[in-house]
Amino acid sequence: xxxxxxxxxxxxxxxxxxxxxxxxxxxxxxxxxxxxxxxxxxxxxxxxxxxxxxxxxxxxxxxxxxxxxxxxxxxxxxxxxxxxxxxxxxxxxxxxxxxxxxxxxxxxxxxxxxxxxxxxxxxxxxxxxxxxxxxxxxxxxxxxxxxxxxxxxxxxxxxxxxxxxxxxxxxxxxxxxxxxxxxxxxxxxxxxxxxxxxxxxxxxxxxxxxxxx
Length: 213
Prior knowledge:
The chain has helices spanning 14-20, 25-39, 42-50, 65-86, 89-95, 105-131, 136-146, 150-175, 194-209. The protein is mainly alpha-helical. The chain has one domain.
């Protein structure tokens, strides 16, 4: 039986995977953990797509709008910095092991969990902004700010799908003749839709001209 015949599918029994530890088991464990953790937030993702508003939204007075926006923006920027920390190549080299060292199953699971926590934070962040009770003048501004999360959320979901798909290609790569080591690259770039940014900036400028911001 060749190596390619021993590669599990994402979603296969984790106990068997961790017991047998076939080639690149660390990446299968990571992709499986990402898929599982992401699925736990399917309801929140569907709520986001529907732009649902929560009943317990925070009330923000007109004079506090700018401070609230600044604080929310800093929270999002701070959280997104963790993406680069979690996917830093040097950290991943240790996480997924090397010729001298096996990867750590618990650390890999923790890593995936922390990445998905960023995804969940973005869902909650956007929902909180949509649900914030503000004066009618500021409703569109808050809705546009909440939309800043749309593209990063989609990019995160695409990243998880890509990880799972890449694991599906491992059997073919292992079956390809050659002694060169196979490299699996984990990369996630988070960006904000320029159209949304311009719309937000236009609305903020309009409010400032009217003395509402």
